[in-house]
Amino acid sequence: xxxxxxxxxxxxxxxxxxxxxxxxxxxxxxxxxxxxxxxxxxxxxxxxxxxxxxxxxxxxxxxxxxxxxxxxxxxxxxxxxxxxxxxxxxxxxxxxxxxxxxxxxxxxxxxxxxxxxxxxxxxxxxxxxxxxxxxxxxxxxxxxxxxxxxxxxxxxxxxxxxxxxxxxxxxxxxxxxxxxxxxxxxxxxxxxxxxxxxxxxxxxxxxxxxxxxxxxxxxxxxxxxxxxxxxxxxxxxxxxxxxxxxxxxxxxxxxxxxxxxxxxxxxxxxxxxxxxxxxxxxxxxxxxxxxxxxxxxxxx
Length: 300
Fold this sequence. Notes:
This protein is an alpha/beta fold. 27% of the residues lie in helices and 27% in strands. It has helices at residues 12-23, 55-66, 121-124, 133-136, 154-161, 180-188, 236-240, 268-271, 277-299, and strands at residues 2-8, 28-31, 72-75, 79-84, 90-94, 99-107, 111-114, 129-130, 145-148, 168-171, 192-194, 198-204, 207-213, 218-220, 223-226, 229-232, 263-265. The strands form 4 sheets. Strands 1, 2, 3, 4, 5, 6 and 17 form a 7-stranded mixed beta sheet that branches. A 5-stranded parallel beta sheet has the order 8-15-9-10-11. A hairpin with a 4-residue loop joins strand 5 and strand 6. Helix 1 packs parallel to helix 2 (55-66) and helix 1 packs parallel to helix 9. The longest helix has 23 residues, at 277-299. The chain starts with a strand and ends with a helix.
C-alpha cells in the first residue's frame, strides 16, 4: 500500500502532524521508538491546557485523539533508513527491515542531548537540574540556583535564569567563555561566577545539594540549569541531503518543506532552539498542512 505520508517521530510534532493529516483524510503511519528526549522529565510545562502533564501522559492523550481517524496508524518501531525512489516516492525501512512506501516524509524525530561529563550530573538531570528555564524555572523559583554551561551562551542563560532567582551561581566548568565585562556585570548583580572545573555534583535521590570543584571547594545549590550539545536523533535528514541552518536545524519554509522535494520537517530538529513542546506541536501542524497541500496540488 502506498501511504500518503510517513511520519518519523512520535513526540508533539509528529503527533500533531498525524492529527492534522488524519483529519485531512490522508493515509499516514507514524513511527515512534519511544526514546523521547524529555522522558527524564517528571512534568512538562507551558503547553496550554496541559501545564504540568507528564511527557508520557501527553503522548497517551494525543494517541487517543488519533484513534478517531482510521487512516492514521501508529507503530512503536524506529525507522532506520529512508531512500528516495526514481519516481519521487520514498521507501522507509524499520530497524527490523520492514519497508513502507510513502509519497511524502515528515521528519519529527527531535534531538538527542549530549550532557557534560560531570560525575553526578545524570543522576540529578530531570529532577533538580534542567535544560530550560521556561519549562522548569517556576518550580525552582527563588532557590539557590546554578547555571552550568561551557559556551558563550552562558551569559544569556544567566540573564534569563535571573528572572526566576537572584541567588545565582554561574559555572563555566573550566571554559573561558565569559568576557571580563560580562563576568563583572554578573558579579555586579550579586551573582557568583566560577571558572574552575567541576569535579562532581552531590545530592540524594535526584535532589541536588552542592557543586564540588576540582580545587576542593564546594558551593551549596539546590537546583539549576545545565547546557548540553544537541544532535539529530537520527541521521536520516543528512542522508536524504536536507539543508541545515547554522545551528544544525533542518531548513524549512513556512509550511515545513525542506530543501529536498517531498521531505518535510517539524519539531526540535527543524528549530533547534527554543525547544518547547507547544512550538514543536505547532510545527507539526504546519508541516502536515504543507504535506496535504503538496499532495492536493499533485492530484488536482
